[in-house]
Amino acid sequence: MTETIPQLTSYDAPAFEAAFATLADEVRQQSAALTTPEAQENFRLHWLGRKQGRLKLISDAWLKSAPPEARKPLGMRFNQLKQQIEQALEAPTAATATTSAAVQGIDITLPGLTRHPGIPHPLLETMHEVVRVFHHLGYSTNLGPQVESDFYNFEALNFPPNHPARDTQDTLQIAGQQARPSRDRLLMRTHTSPVQIRTMIAQAPPVRIVIPGKVHRNDAADATHSPIFHQIEGLCVDTDITFSDLKGTLDHAMKALFGSAVKTRFFPSFFPFTEPSADVQISCIFCGGTGCRKCKHSGWIELLGCGMVDPAVFASVTEERRKINPDDDAYNPEKISGFAFGMGVERIAMMLHGVSDIGHFYSGDMRFLEQFA
Ligand SMILES: [Zn+2]
User: Fold this and answer.
1) CATH architecture of 122-372
2) CA R_g for the chain
3) Which percentage of the chain shows pLDDT scores above 70?
4) Residues with a beta carbon under 5 angstroms from ion ligand 1
C-alpha cells in the first residue's frame, strides 16, 4: 500500500471537498478488506503510523504550504478523516469474531489462563510470624513514624546528647533544623524503640506491645547489612515483672518460632535503655547445637537483645506525662517494672530461608521472590 501524496490544487472549499472525498473513498475501499488482525494492523500503520503514516505525510505536505486562514478548516478535515479511519479499525474482523465465538464455547485445546496470585514479601511474612507468636501471649501491635524526633529516638531512651552510644546508631538527619532545640530535631529513626516511649506516654500500665517496623542507620551495605532494615521490638510493663518473666517469654517465643527443641541462653550486654541488659542466643537450628558452619561451630546463634526497662526511661516518660497531669505516677519504678526486647527481621528471615545476601530481599528480583510462593 504505497501511494503517492495527492496534490491539493488550491486552498478553497471546492478543492478541499474534492481532495478529502478522494481520501475518504480510499479509506472506505481499504477498510472493506480488513478481515484479519494482521490486515487491520497493516491498515493502521499505513494510515496512522507515527512517522510514515499516510495521514501524517499528507497533512504535513498540505499544511506546510497552506495560507494561515486555510489551516483551521484543513485541520478539521484531517480530524474527520482520522475519525473515519479509527471507526474502520474498531469494527470486528472476521478472524476476531471467530476467536471470541470459540472462547464462548469452551475450547479445551487452548492453553489455560495462568493467574499469578500475590504473596506476602518474605520479610513481611517473617514479621507476621513473629507478631503472631506475641499476639497469642496477649500482646497488641503498635506502630510509629519513621521520621522521629531526637527526643523519642534517643533522649527519652537514655541516650543523652553526645553520648558515645549514639555513634553506633548514626542516621540521616532532616536538613535545616539548626534553629530548633536539639530534642525536637528530626531524624530517620534508628530503631523501633521510640514507639515504646510514645505508647507509655499515651497509656498507663499494664502495657504489652510488639512494634514491627522499618529503621535506618548509617551502615554500609554488605551481605549482612543494609542502611534500611526491619526490627520487631516488644515491651511489657506491669506490676511484679521480673527477669524470669523476660526469660520465660523469650524462651517460649523462640520455641514457637523455631521449634520446641530450641534452647535459649542469656549473656550480659549493654543497651542504654535497659538495665540489666542481655544478648540472647538460641541453640543452632541447623545442627541442633553440635556445631556447624552456620553457627561458626559454636552450636549457638545470637538473635536478640533484651533487658529490664531502665528506671531512667520511666523517668523520661513520667516527665512527659506530668506535662498533662502533674500528679501522674503511673510509671513509678517503685510500683511497676518491665522488660523490652528487640530483633532484626532480616536476620531471622535469612536464617529461616538460608538466604546468604540481605540485598536479595530488596532487589525486586522475581526469581528470588517466587521461591516463597
Ligand atoms: Zn550449627
Assistant:
1) 2-Layer Sandwich (3.30)
2) 35
3) 96
4) 284, 286-287, 292, 294-295
